């Protein structure tokens, strides 16, 4: 397996586990991962938020960590990457207002490159207009956006991921083992024990 170059698109208040775990896991299996944020450069940080499921009507939110970016957003070109990862949290809500971000998502999709979106990451897929006629899992509160974008919302347990075509999606961080396995499959990554 040749190592792949993956773009990790983040912003302030990205979900802590949804940025930290994939970043480290993808590096661990030998891929290159560029973590970027609009209007920020390598060495700068984004704040993360920890979302948990504690029996309330929605998730709770607690302060997370500072996550260090390792590449400049201004230098990103979709053609330089093999895949895209979009973590959830609150970041996708405002990142979808950035036309450069939406253009990046569209470029990855038009090229048929693997795209992973977890939790609220589906908001970027919907805003970029890439869900028409496609299946997408997400945090349940994003179901209306998936449907309004012409997609089919896949309602699965929080521990499961869903793969269709070049999309690997999941409801939230408890699905990391499932969606990461599906995403690695899309990348052609083989792990032998």
UniProtKB/TrEMBL annotation:
Residues 4-180 form the DJ-1/PfpI domain. It comes from the Bacteria. InterPro entries: C56_PfpI-like, Class_I_gatase-like, DJ-1/PfpI. NCBIfam families: PfpI. Belongs to the peptidase C56 family. This is DJ-1/PfpI family protein. The lineage of its organism: Bacteria, Pseudomonadati, Pseudomonadota, Gammaproteobacteria, Pseudomonadales.
């Amino acid at each position: 397996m040749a190592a792949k170059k993956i773009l990790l698109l983040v912003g302030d208040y990205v979900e802590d586990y949804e940025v930290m775990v994939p970043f480290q896991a993808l590096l661990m299996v030998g891929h290159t991962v560029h973590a970027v944020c609009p209007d920020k450069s390598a060495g700068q940080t984004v704040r993360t938020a920890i979302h948990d499921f504690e029996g309330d009507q929605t998730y709770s939110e607690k302060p997370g960590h500072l996550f260090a970016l390792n590449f400049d957003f201004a230098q990103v070109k979709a053609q330089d990457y093999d895949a895209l990862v979009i973590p959830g949290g609150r970041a996708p809500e405002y990142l979808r207002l950035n036309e450069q971000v939406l253009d990046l998502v569209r470029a990855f999709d038009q090229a048929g490159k693997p795209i992973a979106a977890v939790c609220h990451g589906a908001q970027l897929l919907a805003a970029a207009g890439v869900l028409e006629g496609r299946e997408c899992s997400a945090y349940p509160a994003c179901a209306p956006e998936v449907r309004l974008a012409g997609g089919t919302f896949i309602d699965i347990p929080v521990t499961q991921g869903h793969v269709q075509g070049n999309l690997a999606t999941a409801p939230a961080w408890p699905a990391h083992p499932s969606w990461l396995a599906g995403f690695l499959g899309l990348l052609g990554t083989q792990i032998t024990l």
